[in-house]
Amino acid sequence: MRSVPSYAPRGAAPAMRVRFGALPLRAAALAGATMGTTWSARLALPAGATDASARQAIQAALDEVVAQMSTWEAESDISRYNRAAAGWRELPAAFFHVLRHALALAEDCGGAYDPTVGPLVNAWGFGPWQRAFEPPSAAAIEAAWLRCGWRRVQLDEARQAAHQPGGIYLDLSSIAKGYGVDRAAQALDALGIANYLVEVGGELRARGKRPDGAPWRVAVEVPDGSDDHALALPLQDLSIATSGDYRRHAGDGDARYAHTIDPRSGQPVRNGVASVTVLHAGCMQADALATALTVLGERDGLAHAERHGVAALFILREADGYRVSATAAFQALAAPC
User: Helix (H, G, I), strand (E, B), or coil: what is residue 97?
Assistant: First the structure.
């Protein structure tokens, strides 16, 4: 369920200097941990920028996202909102920004995407506290479903506040990771770093070119856990995010179910979509759209993406293998491996 850099040297940053225009730049490779996964960055550092300053900036940006939007952290802003009694609650600017986008997407796709789906995610065992080894009962699904509903969350733009109607449990895991990539990229921009590929858990954002002057390239995985590549894409001043069912799931065979829950049915998605990859200027948008299009499925998802000019690649699971379907916008950007 991810895209990966196809230019990804391992180990310490190479002792190499290149030039972009008149400025000498030094190649660097950084990595760290966040959001229950890892982050990495490939950079061309200008004079005055150090590995340590870049690493610190990225980690600080990601730590801020975790502190505001992680349901795995008991004292995060989102966890406090989820525990709060009914009433208005002022939110940090980043949290409010991400929630506002999530609610707008929920409306735009008719509830196929829903930032209040958390109780259902938890009921199926993909939340922060437990891992299910068998599906929940119908009664448990119904009880969780009654706590969902994106229309119940109201926003006050002037106060940057969200209303907690009582019992609503937000889960921004389908958008916060992409937003974290954007925040890490902004942190690098602030240091004057204009050529980088930054990645969090398989979601990536690229700016400029790689250290040898060629375009950044990323590989879209075959959705079978093999780490084989379906295709590679040039990525410049764009983000890429992938949603799929092959890395996080439970059960096997006919009893296998994915971690992506359809908020409209309360059930894991089982519509033949193995993965959806989205290219977008913002990784937050790409991340959320990849989930929404996965839930919508091939027919409705492709129609939604084409209607909005979204660059999206669907990989469909069939009895004899995989089939690929892409929007016109994606085809215009795609390149063979």
Answer: helix
Instruction: Give the length of the chain.
Output: 337
Q: Which residues make Cβ contacts (< 8 Å) with residue 31, sequence separation at least 6?
A: 38, 39, 40, 41
pTM of the predicted structure, to 2 decimals = 0.88
pLDDT in tens, the chain (337 residues): 355 554 333 333 333 333 444 456 789 999 999 998 999 999 999 888 899 999 999 999 999 999 999 999 999 999 999 999 999 999 999 999 999 999 999 999 999 999 999 999 999 888 776 665 678 899 999 999 999 999 999 999 999 999 999 999 999 999 999 999 999 999 999 999 999 999 999 999 999 998 888 899 998 876 655 555 667 888 999 999 999 865 554 444 444 556 799 999 999 988 889 999 999 999 999 999 999 999 999 999 999 999 999 999 999 988 888 899 999 999 998 755 4
Q: Where are the domains of the chain?
A: 69-164
Residues 6+ apart with CB under 8 A from 151: none
Residue 241 CA to residue 239 CA, distance in Å, equals 7
Query: Could you name the CATH architecture of 69-164?
Result: Orthogonal Bundle (1.10)
> Could you tell me which of 255, 229, 48 has the C-alpha nearest to residue 133?
255
3-class SS of residue 105: helix
